[in-house]
TrEMBL record:
Any Gene Ontology CC annotation: cytoplasm
Top-level taxon: Bacteria
PANTHER family linked: AFLATOXIN B1 ALDEHYDE REDUCTASE, ALDO-KETO REDUCTASE YAKC [NADP(+)]
Residue ranges of every copy of the NADP-dependent oxidoreductase domain listed in the record: 16-305
Protein name per Swiss-Prot or TrEMBL: Oxidoreductase
Keywords, comma-separated and alphabetical: Oxidoreductase
4Fe-4S listed as a keyword: no
Length: 332
């Protein structure tokens, strides 16, 4: 089975794996800037095109880091930016804002930090509870017509919101958690809705926030210290699943991370997995998935190791889960 099929998104073909930059600035503990820049440069040199950030990752730090990395290389990257989450000086989250005037303000700051005149894909990080998604879609449509944004995206949206937004401004991509440990889009109607409208998916959390790759919680600043999947009996159960996948991967000459990435790539050419590599060696391991020639039996073995619904614990703490439009039951 080949994994080198390009992914079509935003009127262009993309390298089959994208780079998520969040961990270079936030949520997983300290990161070294020089190493982060080297990782981004290595990704671009390997042919990676899709690069993902958020204006609230490190309260702007991630965009500034990416801007430095892309200096003189902007045309090599398709830059996707999420917006809307509000932070305080201590780094805490204090709300979400997707009002049209705020969207324009957020974008102005983003363009300055990135050192660019446009964002390729712009998306609210969540579906807002207090602003109709049609208004968000319309506001970003205005930015597209002005030339500051190329394409409109959504993140963690449910099927009904996808349909409503797409009717106003075409949705170019949906970003959502999807991998062996997180498969709710298969039963929630989200995957079906995206395929109905021809909307590709950029999948984050492919390695289960590091559970599959063997990453450990680095301390209190690591958001996983507060994640249900990394707590008590849940962690023991999920670690056992990761160990089962590691055994299946080794049988086919792959690392656990490569097995997880290969599984997502096997879901279809409309799925583009994002890897959150923070070091060149981790990036090289992830990209090595594309050189594998795995039989269908390997993909079946990876899925047997971590069957649908096997993960213990929600993927976010209760407060964050409540904000996920993608996890709300569809209206009767």
């Amino acid at each position: 089975m080949s994994f080198t099929t390009p992914r079509r998104l935003g009127d262009r073909d993309h390298f089959p794996i994208g780079l998520g930059c969040m961990g270079m600035s936030d949520f997983y503990g300290p990161a070294d800037e020089a190493t982060s820049l080297a990782t981004i440069h290595a990704a671009l040199e390997a042919g990676v095109t899709y690069v993902d950030t958020g204006d609230f990752y490190g309260s702007g730090h991630n965009e500034m880091l990416l801007g430095r990395a892309l200096a003189g290389r902007r045309d090599q990257a398709f830059v996707a930016v999420k917006f809307g989450a509000l932070r305080d000086p201590a780094g805490g989250f204090v709300g979400f804002d997707a009002r049209p005037a705020s969207i324009r303000n957020f974008l102005a700051m983003t363009l300055k930090r990135l050192g660019t005149d446009h964002v390729d894909l712009y998306m609210p990080a969540r579906v807002p509870a207090d602003v109709p998604i049609e208004e968000v879609a319309g506001a970003i449509g205005d930015l597209i017509r002005a030339g500051w944004v190329r394409h409109f995206g959504l993140s963690e949206a449910g099927a009904a919101s996808i349909a409503r937004a797409h009717a106003v401004t075409p949705v170019a991509a949906l970003q959502i958690e999807y991998g062996l440990l997180s498969r709710s889009i298969e039963t929630s109607g989200v995957l079906d809705a995206c395929r109905t409208y021809g909307i590709p998916i950029t999948a984050y959390g492919v390695l289960g926030r590091g559970l599959i790759g063997g990453s450990k919680v680095s301390g209190a600043a690591d958001f996983r210290a507060h994640s249900p999947r990394f707590a008590g009996d849940n962690l023991a159960r999920n670690t056992a699943l990761a160990e089962a996948l590691a055994a299946a991967a080794a049988h086919f000459g792959a690392t656990p991370a490569q097995a997880a990435i290969a599984w997502v790539l096997s879901r279809g050419p409309d799925i583009l997995p994002l890897v959150g590599a923070r070091r060149p060696d981790r990036l090289a391991e992830a990209l090595g998935t594309l050189a594998l020639d795995l039989p269908a039996a390997a993909i079946a073995a990876f899925e047997a190791a971590i069957p649908a619904g096997a993960a213990a614990g929600d993927r976010y703490a209760a407060e964050q889960m409540a904000m996920l439009d993608s996890e709300r039951p569809p209206a009767a």
